[in-house]
Amino acid sequence: MSHAYQLNDEVLHRGQGPQGRVQVETPKIYTIVQCMPVESDGRLRYRIKSDKIERVVTEDELSYCQ
Fold first, then answer.
1. What is the DSSP code string of 6-62?
2. In angstroms, rounded to a whole number, what is the distance separating the alpha carbons of residues 2 and 42?
3. Beta carbons of 58 and 35 less than 8 angstroms apart
4. Strand 28-35 to strand 10-13: parallel, antiparallel, or no bridges (unpaired)?
5. Which domain of life is it from (predicted)?
6. Which residues pair with residue 11 across a beta bridge?
């Protein structure tokens, strides 16, 4: 299984939904800063960063920036 995105790729992060919040987050542009190892559940993960925010997300939460 290989990662679809590479270091320094710009991607859109789609939030996972409200999770107790009233509004759904709008997609934001992030930069891939690290391709994480495959976890035991088989999903590919990435460390992404935008301005001061850095987070770890799964590949299915990302899409290419247009």
1. -TT-EEEEPP---TT-SSPPPPEEEEEEEEPPPPTT---EEEEEETTEEEEEEGGGE
2. 11
3. no
4. antiparallel
5. Bacteria
6. 30, 64
Model pTM greater than 0.85? no
Going 54 to 50 to 44 to 36, the CA torsion angle's sign is negative
Spans of all domains in the chain? 1-41+52-66
Angle ∠(22,28,30) on CA atoms, nearest 5: 140
d(CA 62, CA 14): 6
DSSP annotation of 5: S
Q: 1-19, pLDDT tens digit by residue? A: 688 999 999 999 887 666 6
